[in-house]
Design goal:
Elements lengths: L6 H7 L5 H26 L22 E13 L4 E2 L3 H4 L5 H12 L12 H14 L5 E14 L4 E4 L4 E6 L2
Antiparallel strand pairs: 1-2, 1-3, 3-4, 3-5
Length: 174
């Protein structure tokens, strides 16, 4: 018939611990595996990346006619001798990180929605005058004009268009 297990074999098989201990330990391991599986499923779900992140942000969506619109700014500097320069922004904003030039220009030099802008401080005007003077040192700076426009790019081919100035702000120097 049935064989009886001696106490010494039981002690050897289960390290001398009771079956209730092993039952609790089994439940704890199963619970841990379940929690890790839920955490893994949560981490693997599709989600937008925080910006800025380690990876690049997503590409801008295009319209049904394969065009994409975005805002851009340019600068025009006028000097007393009649010279007009339109340098790239990074030449005027030499010490700025490339990613911060656009937001800085928008924040500091953009007129607001009511076409009236906050006055530009003397320190900012002096800085702008110094930077513009460094680009063409033989003449005094008369004005610096920032122009914002909406640019349209056709993603099917190498074509783009812009519609002129949507809004502008001119900083003059006495």
């Amino acid at each position: 018939m049935g064989k009886m297990v001696s106490a010494s074999v039981y002690d050897t098989m289960f390290d001398g611990r009771s079956p209730a201990y092993w039952k609790k330990r089994t439940y704890a391991v199963v619970l841990l595996v379940f929690v890790l599986a839920v955490q893994g499923a949560y981490a693997a779900r599709p989600q937008p990346q925080p910006y800025p992140a380690v990876i690049l942000p997503g590409f801008r969506q295009t319209t049904t006619d394969w065009r994409s619109e975005f805002g851009e700014a340019d600068v025009t500097i006028r000097y007393d001798d009649g010279t007009v320069l339109s340098p790239p922004m990074h030449e005027l904003f030499t010490k700025f990180n490339d990613a911060s030039v656009g937001p800085t220009i928008d924040y500091v030099f953009s007129p607001n929605e009511s076409d009236s802008a906050e006055p530009i401080s003397k320190a900012v005007k002096d800085w702008l005058n110094t930077k513009a003077s460094a680009l063409y040192p033989t003449s005094r700076v008369r004005s610096v004009r920032f122009c914002w426009r909406t640019a349209t790019i056709d993603v099917r081919g190498p074509s783009s268009s812009d519609g002129g100035c949507d809004k502008a702000r001119e900083v003059t120097f006495d």
